[in-house]
């Protein structure tokens, strides 16, 4: 609109802007205010602190917490969202030990017959997955890591190698 002429709200706004520009006291007041982005950042930080405290003290979710103990780091990590990945990092689904708890599998034992088929067994122990695990170990060691890493390191430092390992597992036959 041309010069906002004749529009009451704009005329009032123009008048207030001109007055503020001439009044040193009002100018200082404007510059003493906290930026919206600063307030938003502080609210976000406080919310994340509160969420982390609840996460640390939750009665459930121990498997997920072992992979993602630090929520801020988790939010920064791009993770693959697949049923297999989710099942392993939550401990819910896909493993015989989990399915057996709900009478969806006859036996909690792994096909290798060495131990119950848990997340830890699949990642660190199952001899059926030795070739896939060896590939993951090689990738981790070549990138300067050591075996075995913590579960947190698997999802933070070595997410690509870990995701490739999980993708290579045939849960139907395991």
List the helices and strands and how they pair.
Blueprint lengths: L7 H15 L1 H9 L3 H22 L4 H6 L3 H6 L6 H8 L5 H6 L17 H7 L4 H13 L8 H6 L2 H9 L7
Helix pairs in contact: 9-11
Question: Which term fits the overall shape?
Answer: elongated
Number of strands: 0
In total, how many domains does the architecture comprise?
2
Mean residue pLDDT: 89
Oligomer: single chain
Low-confidence stretches: none
Architecture overview:
- By secondary structure, this protein is mainly α.
- It folds into 2 domains: 8-55, no CATH class; 62-167, no CATH class.
- It contains 11 helices and no strands.
- The chain is elongated.
Characteristic key phrases:
174 residues; mainly alpha; 2 domains; elongated
How do you describe this structure in short?
The chain has 174 residues and is an all-alpha fold. The chain has eleven helices and no strands.
């Amino acid at each position: 609109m041309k010069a906002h002429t004749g529009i009451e709200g704009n005329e009032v706004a123009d008048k207030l802007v001109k007055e503020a520009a001439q009044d040193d006291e009002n100018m200082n007041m404007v510059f003493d205010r906290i930026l919206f982005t600063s307030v938003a950042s502080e609210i976000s930080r406080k919310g994340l602190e509160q969420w982390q405290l609840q996460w640390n003290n939750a009665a459930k979710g121990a498997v997920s917490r072992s992979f993602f103990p630090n929520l801020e780091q988790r939010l920064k990590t791009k993770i693959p969202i697949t049923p297999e990945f989710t099942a392993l990092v939550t401990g819910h689904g896909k493993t015989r030990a989990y399915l057996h708890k709900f009478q969806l599998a006859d036996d909690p034992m792994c096909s290798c017959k060495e131990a119950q088929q848990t997340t830890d067994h699949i990642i660190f122990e199952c001899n059926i997955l030795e070739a896939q695990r060896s590939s993951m170990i090689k990738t981790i060691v070549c990138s300067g890591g050591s075996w075995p890493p913590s579960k947190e390191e698997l999802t933070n430092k070595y997410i690509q190698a870990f995701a490739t390992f999980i993708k290579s597992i045939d849960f139907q036959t395991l």
